Amino acid sequence: MSTSIKAAPMTAEERKVIFASSLGTVFEWYDFYLYGSLAAVIAKQFFSGLDAGSAFIFALLAFAAGFIVRPFGAFCLTTQALVLPLQ
Question: Where are the domains of the chain?
């Protein structure tokens, strides 16, 4: 004997939340894509006092810092959102 559970249709609010979350993720990853694609140019502009190899490594380290710090930012913003909800 099997039981079937029907899923309730999504509300407009749920669709709005999913759309906003997806859009934010797309913008965030696009930002990382641009930085990664332009790492050689960024290395020349920001680390011009170093040789090309070292400048590129420093540009990639700055790129890695963004990935390392991201979870801490998410934790802080989530904590703030839970403590100080929007009204």
Answer: 14-83
